[in-house]
Amino acid sequence: MPTKKSQKKRPKNQPSAPKQNKEITTHTLDATGKILGRLATEAAVLLRGKNKPGFRPYQVSGDKVIIINAAKIRLTGKKMTDKRYYRHSGYLGGLKLETLGELWRKNPAEVLRRAIKGMLPKNKLQTRFLKNLKIYNGEV
Fold it and tell me: Taking 90 as the threshold, does the pLDDT of residue 7 lie above it?
């Protein structure tokens, strides 16, 4: 006769998916003449691994992405003057802002990195995804 304790036993945890050999490939994207947002979405999909059949939203199974010629990327509209990036120091009156044009003059690769970062999940996996991303302003 089973007791109440044995009736409440749960099955042992099973792995959620069979083990797959992790084939991590490196994708090289040339940013010459490409639109900022379109290139950023392409890179974000590759970083997350959404192009793979074994995609899991809670795992870092994506590939490595290298983007070259980030300084030759195209922007549409009046983003150079109208788009703004905000940050706050935490102190009163500590709101800092800079336009895309100001950031572009300092480092064009940072503009692309921020666009890709905004398309990744806002959790602790985001930093792990960004470690697989390398952006260069010119040829490598």
Answer: no
User: Which residues, 6 or more positions from 39, have their beta carbon under 8 angstroms from its beta carbon?
Assistant: 29, 31, 67, 73, 112
Beta strands in the chain (DSSP E): 26-30, 64-68, 84-88, 95-99, 133-135
| pLDDT tier at 139, thresholds 50, 70, 90 | confident
- Determine contact, residues 94/124, Cβ cutoff 8 Å: no
Percent of the chain with pLDDT over 70: 85
pTM to 2 decimal places: 0.83
Could you tell me the domains of the chain? Answer: 24-135 (3.90.1180.10)
Kindly report the backbone phi and psi dihedral angles of residue 115, in degrees, each rounded to the nearest multiple of 5, phi listed first. -65, -40
What is the distance between the alpha carbons of residues 120 and 115, in angstroms, rounded to a whole number?
9
